[in-house]
Amino acid sequence: MVLRVPRHGRSHSFRPPRYDMKSALALLSLASLVAASQATSNDENTQLRMSVDQIIAETAENVFGDVFRGAEHLLDTVLHAGEKTVNKVEANIQEWSVGNTEFVKQDDIVYERFRHASFPGYQIRVKKPQLCDPNVKQYSGYLDIDDDKHLFFWFFESRANPAKAPLVLWLNGGPGCSSSTGLLFELGPCNIANDGQDTTYNKYSWNTHANMLFLDQPINVGYSYSKNGGVNNSPVAAEDSRKYAPINVGYSYSKNGGVNNSPVAAEDVWSFLELFVNRFPEYSGSLHISGESYGGTYLPNIAHVIHTKNKEIKAHAAQGLLPDNKVKVLHLESVLIGNGLTEPYTQFASVPEYACDGPYPVFDTDGPQCTSLRAKVPTCQRLIKSCYDYNNRLSCVPAALYCWSQMFGSFQQLGLNPYDVRRKCNKAEDGDLCYRQLEWIETFMNDEKVKSELGAVADREFKSCNMKVNQAFMMQGDGMHNAAAIETFMNDEKVKSELGAVADREFKSCNMKVNQAFMMQGDGMHNAAALLPELVEDGVRLLIYAGNADFMCNAIGNLQWLEKLETSFQADFQAAKQVPFVPLSSKSNKPAGFVKTAGGKGQFTAGNITYVQIYDAGHMVPYDQPEAALDMFVRWIMDTPLTVTTSDA
């Protein structure tokens, strides 16, 4: 998660924002200007936008000044490193062919290169690493876009019957966090260990029954990279900003940057999936897309693009308009979102209920904190509704600034882990992100041999999350995944070499400049749930799951927005009873949570719309309850009932 509750201690830690009257008035002044911008002339609108931008800048400086100054310093460092990276890479490129197979040697790493006539400007570079789980087939490398953006991926074949197993894409959130955190800390074939010097076998990996594909997007986080290491933070309306693709995540990179919204990110992900299944047609069967946290915003956008493109492909095929080397239909079967941010109007309003009356209340329900939180909900919802109605930066940024700061500000004083309120967070012992294993991952992923093995760019530093640019109250994120261990592992030279990562790219799980760029477009305040009804009606199944100890994307809000989703299954879902969820591998027959479901064919399927709440789990359900998470996942992708218990089986 990127959205972090700051703690005091180290000099580079986030400093609590100043919630003074000037800041509050500035936020409300900004909100009041938004409606006026909708009916003005072009000249007047330009002047008004300039005024709004000034208020945004002044408010951000007043409330988040320390954060932005840290971000500016970090950006200068990243830009300098990025220029070194690409200059070095471009000077060391060799190309050749063997038969019909193309190869490219870049930064002393040999990749197979695959290009597709229908995707000019796109290519994938592929390497075969032997890390993490050498007993399964692996591929890693980059999606290259116009020699500018470079998205890193890592694929693991299923441990069981890969020819019949579905392809599952996994994305961590942020925006700006590497999916390697999910791979090495939650649900991948191995878990980070020994301060990032090693990994251990994960028997609960989701590749037990699925071909798993982990993608670092957007660029300049993790191993993904760009020439300038930059992000597009231009003050344009959200509709126009969709011209810019999110980049700079993990080992992914881009020459010119350009990161600020989810819809364009979805276009690049679709292009990547097309190239991947064309190069590896053996994995072109059923497709599921999954993720957590800000993935709740990414995934509906990606699913929408896939679904729309599929319709276009089928229509063109019916008219005989497809080229011989045709684009494939991606057989999207379902979307899985864990503790996601998807429908902010409902989810932000659920914060007082969770904080004061939830399964792990952090405030006295009759105390001043709860009274204050409840009083702030109407203003937060009014601002979010304005974002929904006008769908532009001028209306969405005020909502992001106000709602994150006002609805989550009081939590920062509690000394608790916002991703698992059952736990305290001692930065001296647990690391800046409350999970020290994330730093281990950075150590591993920045090892030169690891970079080379993975095919990662040598000059790209892998970062799990950068606490120097803590945007705790701006935008939902996904960086609280044991940063120390992950970053240690991913920055190991052997790991970089094995994966084919750019050697000079330092791995960081989360790039906070990307996070800031998305925030300054108000991207997270858009209603991603609005993209889902068409998908559901056309047969794409939807699973929302949530750990009940997560404060940031709480289980109450996730159930509430799903109950409001307007589909033909809505009435049945609202009326559905909560049925115990018991993993079939459980010997005690003890419920691990509960299930609500609607649609499907009675009790013989997993349903068209399904919600699973997992007990005793925080934001990262596969980390806290790996057995239950795997059981849920396998039953879902096999479309078998989640309501069946061991006594029924």
From TrEMBL:
Signal peptide interval: 1-36
One Gene Ontology term from the biological process aspect of the record: proteolysis
Keywords annotated in UniProt: Carboxypeptidase, Glycoprotein, Hydrolase, Protease, Signal
Enzyme class name: hydrolase
Any one cellular-component term (Gene Ontology): fungal-type vacuole
Enzyme Commission code(s) on record: 3.4.16.-
Gene Ontology MF: a single term: serine-type carboxypeptidase activity
Classification via InterPro entries: AB_hydrolase_fold, Peptidase_S10, Ser_caboxypep_his_AS, Ser_caboxypep_ser_AS
Any one Pfam family match given in the protein's UniProt record, by short name: Peptidase_S10
Family, as annotated: Belongs to the peptidase S10 family.
Descriptive protein name: Carboxypeptidase
